[in-house]
Design brief:
The protein is mainly alpha-helical. It has 3 helices and 2 strands, in the order H-H-H-E-E.
């Protein structure tokens, strides 16, 4: 969210390839009912929803566990 839909800097911060992040975002959009993540209003609404429900610290990539060079959420 903080990279304003720019895939390359977001992928770099998450330490994944741009193609991987693009695929993940497409899958997330499908799971969320086909949201259009290229729309700024949709991204803003999603960001607010995530901030409202996230525990302290949210999804700071530095706090996510690392496995095999990729960043994952804990189950």
């Amino acid at each position: 969210m903080r990279h304003h839909a720019h895939i390359a800097p977001a992928a770099n911060e998450l330490h994944v390839h741009r193609t991987t992040l693009t695929l993940w975002l497409a899958q997330a959009a499908d799971q969320l009912g086909g949201l259009h993540l290229d729309d700024a209003t949709t991204r803003a609404e999603l960001h607010l929803a995530l901030e409202a429900t996230a525990p302290d610290g949210g999804d700071d990539p530095a706090r996510l566990p690392r496995r095999g060079g990729r960043t994952y959420r804990q189950p």
